[in-house]
Design brief:
Layout (H helix, E strand, L loop, with lengths): L2 H12 L3 E6 L2 E5 L5 E9 L2 E6 L2 H4 L7 H24 L1
Antiparallel strand pairs: 1-2, 2-3, 3-4
The structure holds zinc ion (ZN).
The site of zinc ion has 7 residues, from helix 2.
């Protein structure tokens, strides 16, 4: 894990952001200061990549906005997989 990403995780555990689903795999991350950023995820070769439109994200750095968005993205994808499994079992 890069130091950059570790710093992002540390900051995300201190600063509680709320996450709103925009649709698809885009999320709005709202900081306690009411700043809003858009985080988008894409899958490349089975690996998830996130991009944020904040200053750090634009410089391709791992920012702490990615962390809460990734947690929500993971939860949604798990639920979607569960629904797909239940449907195929019917
Ligand atoms: Zn960001």
């Amino acid at each position: 894990m890069t130091q950059n990403l570790q710093n992002a995780i540390n900051k995300a555990s201190r600063v509680k952001c709320s996450v709103k689903l925009q649709g698809g795999r885009s999320y709005t991350v709202i900081t306690p200061e009411a700043h809003r950023y858009t985080v988008r995820f894409e899958e490349v070769d089975g690996q998830r990549f996130g991009r944020c439109n904040c200053k750090a994200g634009a410089a391709r750095m791992a920012c702490f906005h990615l962390i809460p968005a990734a947690l929500v993205d993971t939860a949604i994808r798990r639920m979607a997989a569960q629904v797909a499994r239940e449907r195929s079992a019917m």
